[in-house]
Design brief:
The chain is of the alpha+beta class. It is about 45% helix and about 20% strand. The chain folds into three domains: about 170 residues, Beta-Lactamase (2-Layer Sandwich); about 60 residues; about 150 residues, Heat Shock Protein 90 (2-Layer Sandwich).
């Protein structure tokens, strides 16, 4: 996602949080109209407010101080009703006099405008109208932002209405918890987009730098083999980030629907992962040791299980000490199998332990993320949960860590 669009969406989310302290819904409409004018770089605007969910009566909720004309009430054949009926923004890039009745002609005042319905789930509150004195071409980014502006405005009103009327009575109920969860999800979503954008920007910048240098110097300042090798490395890194992002954005439940369950020999799987991981442990002279593994068959998706174990092993090597070791062991406990990945590396501080499975979180910032995606442990957690299991960790700073994956042996 474009950084400018990302900043604008972040501003919308911040406006929603700020608006929750307002005592009047019309104040919220005012805030979002003014923010809308800012992020769309429009000249003036106004908003219609639906007075009741039972009828189609509207009144002017807010208008810019420099609004050059008095807007007519929404009418059934007009764009306002069309936008609200279809719950979809309407973009008019070229206002023509002949397209309006004399009474409703807006061509003297504007050359372009957008009508944005204020809607969220089943709620429809009205429209925001942002206008331009000169002709404006709406980009795909504008169209994406218009939907966010309408939805987030409506979310702020919906949540404000709920919290204002029901806070005292429902603050300890599941409903309050659900409302708070919605707010937290919005915050997490914004942070996730920002972090993902940052992760993708670095390899793209390196690729672009190599290409620019090669083109400008005619390969005099950089050997073709070196440039191509660097570009190939970054493309593989980009591919890995996109692959990991696709898993995390699926969600554990959706991911479970994609899993192809079949019989997987645990011993063969772990030996394969250990052998493959030796290539990344070689530089640090870290020994990868496979302890006695029960020769049992578990039920799961071999591709995802391999990715999960590879990520755990790679994480152990990344934060391991030179000349150290990583041990992989497994034991059966009733209907479950417990897989442990143990190392004598740098360990994890107590304050970091609760957060290490968060997307992009890095406990030790001194270990650069460029060789990783910053998503490895999140993938481990989500794959384990998608298989009906879980992952735990025990760690002592400067002594090492033990990651334990607990999976059901049979299909869940």
């Amino acid at each position: 996602m474009d950084q400018i669009i990302l900043k604008k969406i972040t501003l919308l989310n911040q406006t929603m949080l700020d608006s929750l302290t307002e005592l009047d819904n019309l104040k919220i409409i005012e805030k979002f109209t003014e923010v809308g004018l800012k992020i769309f770089e429009a000249d003036f605007g106004f908003a219609w407010w639906k007075t009741s969910t039972e009828n189609e009566e509207y009144h002017l909720a807010y208008k810019s101080a420099d609004l050059p004309y008095i807007p007519q009430l929404p009418r059934e054949r007009g764009g306002n009703f069309e936008a609200m009926k279809n719950r979809t923004p309407i973009f008019v890039e070229n206002v023509k006099k002949e397209n309006y009745e004399k009474k409703y002609d807006v061509s003297p005042y504007m050359k372009s405008y957008v009508i944005i319905p204020i809607t969220y789930n089943k709620y429809l509150y009205g429209n925001l109208i942002l206008c331009y004195k000169q002709k404006h071409i709406f980009t795909e980014g504008d169209k994406e932002l218009s939907i966010s502006l309408g939805n987030i405005t409506a979310q702020a009103i919906t949540i404000r209405d709920f919290t204002q009327k029901e806070y005292d009575n429902l603050k300890r109920t599941e409903m309050f918890k659900y409302t708070w969860k919605l707010l937290q999800q919005e915050k997490i979503k914004t942070e996730f987009i920002a972090n993902a954008t940052h992760e993708l920007r670095t390899p793209i910048a390196i690729i672009k730098g190599n290409v620019d240098l090669a083109l400008k110097s005619g390969f005099k300042k950089i050997k073709p083999e070196r440039a191509l090798h660097s570009i190939d490395h970054e493309i593989k890194h980009l591919s890995q980030i996109i692959s990991d992002l696709s898993i995390l954005t699926s969600g554990a439940e959706n991911l479970k629907d994609q899993i192809i369950f079949k019989e997987v020999n645990l011993k063969s799987l772990i030996n394969h992962v250990a052998e493959k991981s030796k290539t990344i442990s070689y530089k640090k002279k870290i020994s990868i040791i496979v302890k006695k593994i029960p020769n049992i068959t578990i039920w799961g998706d071999e591709t995802y299980l391999e990715k999960m174990l590879t990520n755990l092993t790679k994480n152990s090597v990344t934060y391991g000490k030179i000349g150290g070791h990583t041990e992989i062991s497994a034991k059966q406990s009733g209907k479950f199998i417990i897989i442990n990945v143990t190392d004598n590396g740098i360990g994890i501080a107590k304050e970091d332990l609760p957060r290490i499975f968060e997307r992009f979180y890095m406990a030790d910032k001194s270990h650069g993320r460029h060789e990783n995606t910053g998503l490895g442990l999140s993938i481990v957690k989500w794959v384990a949960e998608a298989h009906g299991g879980k992952v735990n960790v025990k760690s002592i700073k400067n002594k090492g860590s033990v990651f334990s994956v607990i999976l059901p042996v049979n299909k869940v």
